Amino acid sequence: MIGRICGTGSYVPDHFLDNNDLSQMVETSDEWIRERTGVVRRHIVQEDTVVSMAVKASRRALEGSGIAPEDLDLIIVSTFTSEVLLPSTACEVQKELGAGNATCFDLNAACTGFLFAWNTAQAYLAQGMYRNALIIGAERLSRYVDWKDRSTCILFGDGAGAAVLKAEKGSTLPMFTHSDGAKGEALTCFTRPDTYIQMEGQAVFRFAVKKVPEAVEELLKKADMTMEDIDYLVLHQANRRIVEAVAKRLKTDISRFPMNLQEYGNTSSASIPILLDEMNREGKLKRGQKIILAGFGAGLSWGASLVEW
User: CA 214, CA 249: separation in Å to the nearest integer?
Assistant: First the structure.
């Protein structure tokens, strides 16, 4: 059995800060931020929570899936920014959706989180334990950003994305993840006394532009495919320079790498499902297309998964 996407959804707050807004808060400029990151705006929570964003994205995913909330067997939420520790965000989402038959839990793999959730759900569906799964990436990163730190406040935004998976007959497609805790100090966020995201930007950049191409090549080898067989590579939306460097190392055209980071910034585990939902609603995704999802981030963690639409 394989889990096939039958519905996608996303939600971002209406309120946003553009680069000019940030230039009034820290020493920076629109030109400086665009050149180094590609980010133009980032959406910021005012009244929403991680749970409310996750619920809104999930409802939109369910609307197009043909699956009722009570028919969900599994809900996984990837987040590290939830306002509640107990009960889990997934259980709160279950309550709001009325999905009383689902098993629910959260996982934390930061920016690689949606990929971890995807792989976990696929494993459950492949074993026949569940039939219908809802996977969500939802983050309120603005809660952990030091708005006086130019190196991080220009990068991050809030939002949520979701996908509904339905078990169908078929062979599991290649997928894998890796972690290197020995290098985790490159990207941290401690609960006490410092609650801000801290990042060694150059270290994270070098890690991403090395590991993501390796992950894609590893996945292609496992799938016995070449880059010519792939329609899109949907990467975690962290930085335009990273995406461009990955495309260059893979010797493939940047047009295969859709991006929306200019509008949302880095939304961590929400970035891949938000982008998938936008592509889906714009009609860019067609039945039978081959897509590679690739994530990378804190942990350090990274991985890639092959998706057939």
Answer: 9
Helices 113-126 and 271-281: angle between axes, nearest 10 degrees: 70
**Annotated catalytic residue within 19, 91, 236, 239:** 236
Q: Please give the backbone phi and psi of residue 119, each rounded to the nearest 5 degrees, phi first.
A: -65, -40
Residue 266 annotated to the active site? yes
Give 112's DSSP letter.
G
Could you report the per-residue pLDDT of 213-245, keeping only the tens digit for each? Answer: 999 999 999 999 999 999 999 999 999 999 999
Active-site pick, 19, 119, 239, 266 = 266
Contact 118, 308 (CB under 8 A): no
How much of the chain is in helix, strand and coil states, percent to nearest 5?
40, 25, 35
Q: Is-catalytic flag, 6?
A: no
**3-state class of 17 per DSSP?**
strand
Start-to-end CA span in the chain (Å) = 15
* DSSP conformational letter for 275: H
Q: Is the dihedral of CA 66, 69, 70, 74 positive or negative?
A: positive
What pLDDT digit, counting tens, does each position of 159-202 carry? 999 999 999 998 889 999 999 999 999 999 987 667 899 999 99
The answer to whether 111 is a known catalytic residue is: yes
